[in-house]
UniProtKB/TrEMBL annotation:
<protein>
    <recommendedName>
        <fullName>TIGR03067 domain-containing protein</fullName>
    </recommendedName>
</protein>
<feature type="signal peptide">
    <location>
        <begin position="1"/>
        <end position="20"/>
    </location>
</feature>
<keyword id="KW-0732">Signal</keyword>
<dbReference type="InterPro" id="IPR017504">
    <property type="entry name" value="CHP03067_Planctomycetes"/>
</dbReference>
Length: 145
């Protein structure tokens, strides 16, 4: 029994560390983001196509405004994997009730998200030709003081 104690302690420390990382990302992702670039299945979208898009995270809710369209829902971050995972469930918009699986990377004021467009989670943060993936690199919108 006591020989297993170090293993249990190690597992507990790993679980606490994963929870702390998730809480850190949950806090760091909050705010409004605008795309720097977007790629769908290897095709780079024109800057004017993505310029109007805004993504806002508030609590566990997200809100996307793009070309007059509003999508809202809940998101969940999972930091136990590398790259970390993001799941969104649309509550308002054309895909209401749909869960979209993705990966993300968050560093300072840059957020990269890759979603699988056919219900499968991507394996990496890329969008190659024929991959049916959406890859967007965002930058944080700075608030005026």
């Amino acid at each position: 029994m006591y020989r297993r104690l170090p293993c249990f302690l190690l597992l507990a420390l790993i679980a606490v560390g994963a929870h702390a990382a998730q809480a850190d990302d949950q806090q760091a992702i909050q705010g409004t983001w605008q795309p720097k670039s977007a790629t769908i299945s290897g095709q780079v979208l024109e800057p004017e196509t993505v310029q109007s898009l805004r993504l806002t995270f508030e609590g566990n809710q997200y809100h996307v405004v793009a070309q007059g369209r509003n999508d809202k829902g809940q998101f969940t971050l999972k930091t136990e994997t590398t790259p970390a995972q993001i799941d969104i469930v649309e509550q308002e918009g054309p895909s209401k009730g749909k869960t979209t699986l993705g990966l993300y990377s968050l560093a300072d004021d840059e957020l990269t998200i890759c979603f699988g467009l056919e219900q499968e989670r991507p394996l990496d943060l890329t969008s190659e030709e024929g991959s049916n993936r959406l890859l967007i690199v965002y930058e944080r919108v700075k608030q005026n003081p």
